[in-house]
Write a structure and sequence with these properties.
Length: about 230
């Protein structure tokens, strides 16, 4: 385990570190710790206008009892957790988790909140029925690694639900997003040039449905881990 708490393995199962990824991960952690103070205010208008409805729709689709939320942030999804579900929620940022703990306490939620890196999940294989993310993989340094870890902790045939913003395939819009991405990352912490569908498929998931929610940028992905 490195100073940031990350654990990595080579194909033989030996733990090792990837210095470039570890630096990027630590930068992400610090960025979201800084943003945690004003994050809800920054996204207030978008939440009221659209994101809250998207979140409600995402959580209405969840199957199973053992659920993992990756990237809980300030806990905006907690109000939509299914009744009776056993939800574990993780985040890389201690600052974000502090906000989520307060929200969980206010709502009387029994969610288990843990500080953890999706690129190196500290859970056994096949322990969850469903894994969900909302606007998270724009910030994961190695998206495919993170998705492979999510697939590992899902039971065979387990459900993956992702609400994410991605790079537009429209030539002019997509190019504009790539041009402004460095500035957006510095201000908001999120990359707006990710090709998330390709990452999901590269991680070995089977995509069942891809729903466009806003243009071809905000999408809801429904996928499965292979049945066996």
């Amino acid at each position: 385990m490195d100073p940031a708490g990350n654990r990595h393995t080579d194909p033989a199962g030996n733990r090792h570190t990837d210095p470039a990824r570890d630096r990027a991960t630590e930068t992400t952690r610090r960025r979201y710790d800084r943003l945690s103070r004003t994050y809800d205010l920054m996204e207030w208008a978008a939440e009221r206008r659209a994101f809250e409805g998207y979140r409600r729709r995402l959580w209405s689709l969840v199957e199973g009892r053992r659920i993992l939320e990756v990237g809980v942030g300030t806990g905006k999804n907690i109000p939509f957790y299914p009744g009776g579900a056993e939800v574990t929620a993780i985040d890389l940022s201690p600052g974000m988790l502090d906000k989520a703990r307060r929200r969980a306490a206010e709502l009387g939620s029994s969610v288990e909140l843990r500080e953890m890196d999706v690129q190196d999940l500290d859970f056994p294989d096949g322990g969850f029925d469903a894994v969900l993310t909302t606007f998270v993989f724009c910030s994961v340094p190695d998206a495919v690694r993170g998705l492979r870890e999510m697939r590992r902790v899902l039971r065979p045939g387990g459900q993956l639900l992702m609400l994410e913003h991605v790079l537009s395939r429209r030539p002019v819009l997509g190019r504009a997003m790539q041009v402004v991405n460095p500035a957006v990352v510095r201000i908001m912490g999120a990359n707006i040039d990710r090709r998330t569908r390709e990452s999901i498929e590269a991680a070995g998931f089977l995509i069942e449905q891809e729903t466009y929610l806003w243009l071809d940028i905000v999408k809801l992905f429904q996928a499965r881990s292979p049945a066996g």
